[in-house]
Write a structure and sequence with these properties.
Strand order of the largest sheet: 5-4-3-2-1-11
Oligomer: single chain
Structural class: alpha/beta
Order of helices and strands: HHHHHHHHHHHHEHHEHEEEEEHEHEEEHH
Radius of gyration: 25 Å
Number of helices: 19
Largest sheet: 6 strands, mixed
Length: about 550
């Protein structure tokens, strides 16, 4: 109630607010400024401060429309949200164009379609936030935070084309003491928190412009508490971590451009001498290769017998004397063996013994890896993309369990959480960033940095070690407290990094309860965008 009175209520009349807050001609510019600021948080320069102020201009633009009487409908909030969301994701996803244009002419249309769809959802979020603020007298910073978080939750749960790649506040994952709240409510907390703080700043700025200094001061006090309490708790939490013993040592192979071709098995064997030399100096327990390093299945789909590639992987692990975790393909038969479904997969091959079951990638990149929810053989034709893995389970490794995830999987907190609940003692993210053309400019893009952000968030959410190994970058380790090793080798290079896995602690609150905040915010988002005249409280003008 205090936050609502300080930040969301109103003493001045609607006409007075409209005359003193920035004029309508400025609002579109404010929304665009927020879009640029949000987009900058998706970059390597996001920092720990910008996420908290990025939504302030957008909130200032929405505040004027929120002062209208309840029955008044305006399309303006929708347009402001569209501009902010579309601008932000146009900046954050710019790398789609250089990444895909050398492979398909549809790169630019697909990029524009994705940006437009996210812009529509962002517009709906701002429209819903303003409607709840105007008609139900809920504080605008709270409604904006809830509806924006609900929009991101909705985008991540659209069947077949779910999108969870970028979200507000994600850059805080690089600052573990600031991002500690993620272990309670998941990464959604970072979105809600940063949007609410930015919204509060925007509303306070409007109040100060209106000349209502006392209300602005009260708002500042409340906002300092909203920022300070989680920050203090995060600092104390970080100091509470004790030194944890290393459970596993991993040799992560950043393989460069040599793999994923017709001679993939030979490429695997190329790494045997350097790995042997490394083991003589710094022993390790596991060698890890990136996503789809072997562009072939390791066992036959019909009878499970190892393929020639599978036999060579077994020989490699035996010669190395160490288990190997490798990205490859898996195949399954449907319709009495008349069709084959291919999966983007990961396997553990022990130094002696049978190949593990396959972990099948459960989150497919929309448009690039197939729809995922259409079964093979639909309409009488074989599936052109990968099949979607179901019920993710960790893989057996040296008497324990490792939760393997493949590339886009790491953008989804529920996938990592399911593996942890199933007994994974640490997580390994196998990714392939080799789709960027090495002969063209702008090869090293923000995509590398954004992928590394997801690994940090998954580690903090579950307080578990995460190893990421990529074809061309980044390859690194994240400890349960969220601290990451150096990014080595560098992007675009090839080499081997020896990384440490620390023991997992107790389950976090988020691991136990899941994304309840996201679900709650989605319900608020729906409440804001669905017309409803029942139970609305008319605003009082005084």
């Amino acid at each position: 109630m205090a936050m609502g009175w300080a930040l969301g209520g109103g003493l001045a009349s609607p006409a007075s607010r409209r005359s003193r807050c920035p004029g309508g001609s400025v609002h579109g510019l404010l929304a665009a400024v927020s879009g640029v600021a949000i987009g900058a948080t998706f970059s390597p320069f996001g920092g720990p401060v910008l996420p908290f102020v990025a939504f302030a201009p957008l909130a200032a633009a929405l505040q004027r429309d929120g002062s209208r009487p309840a029955p008044t409908f305006s399309v303006t909030p929708f347009m402001h949200g569209f501009v902010a969301a579309a601008t932000a994701h146009a900046i954050g996803l710019y790398w789609m164009v250089p990444a895909l244009s050398w492979r398909t002419r549809l790169a630019v249309p697909v990029y524009l379609l994705v940006v437009a769809m996210l812009g529509l959802l962002g517009g709906a979020a701002c429209s819903g936030a303003t409607a709840l603020h105007r008609a139900r007298r809920w504080p605008l910073p709270v409604t904006l935070a809830a509806c924006w978080t609900g929009f991101e939750w909705a985008a991540a749960h659209v069947p077949g084309v779910s999108y969870a790649w970028l979200h507000a506040g994600g850059s805080l994952g690089w600052y573990p003491a600031v991002a500690g709240g993620a272990e309670l409510l998941g990464a959604r907390f970072l979105t809600f928190w940063t949007v609410a703080v930015g919204g509060g700043l925007g509303v306070i700025a409007c109040r100060a412009r209106e000349g209502d200094g006392s209300r602005a001061v009260r708002g500042v006090v409340v906002l300092l508490a909203v920022v300070g309490v989680p920050l203090l708790a995060g600092q104390l939490r970080q100091r509470g971590f004790e030194e944890v013993e290393v459970a596993t040592t991993v040799a992560a192979v950043q393989a460069g451009h040599g793999g994923s071709g017709t001679g993939a098995a030979a490429e695997l064997e190329r790494w045997l001498p350097p790995l042997r030399d490394l083991a003589a100096e710094r022993p390790f327990d596991l060698a890890v290769f990136p996503e789809r390093f072997l562009a072939a299945a390791l066992r036959h789909p019909g009878n499970g017998v190892p393929t020639d590639t599978g036999l060579r992987v077994a020989d490699f692990a035996a010669a190395l004397g160490t288990a190997t975790l490798v990205g490859a393909l898996d195949a399954g038969l449907v319709e009495a063996g008349r069709d084959t479904v291919w999966y983007n997969a990961a396997y553990v091959q022990p130094a002696g013994g049978a190949l593990s079951p396959a972990y099948r990638k459960s989150r497919l990149v929309p448009g690039l890896e197939g729809i995922g929810w259409l079964p093979a053989g639909t309409l009488g034709r074989a599936s052109r993309g990968y099949g979607r893995g179901r019920d993710p389970q960790p893989l057996p490794l040296n008497g324990g369990l490792v939760g393997a995830m493949v590339c886009y999987d790491s953008a989804y907190g529920p996938t990592a959480r399911a593996l942890v609940l199933a007994g994974a003692q640490w997580l390994a993210v196998l990714s392939n960033d080799d789709w960027l053309d090495p002969e063209r400019p702008f090869r090293t893009t923000w995509a590398y940095w954004q992928h590394a952000t997801h690994a940090r968030l998954r580690a903090i959410e579950n307080r578990i070690s995460v190893i990421q190994v990529a074809t061309t970058g980044h390859t690194f380790a994240v400890s349960p407290e969220g601290r990451a090793s150096a990014l080595a080798p560098g992007a675009g290079e090839e080499g081997i990094a020896v990384l440490s896995v620390e023991r997992r602690g107790a389950f976090t609150v988020y691991t136990r309860i899941g994304d309840l905040l996201g679900v709650a915010c989605f319900l608020v988002f729906v409440l804001g965008i669905v017309p409803d005249r029942v139970g609305r409280v008319p605003r009082r003008d005084s």
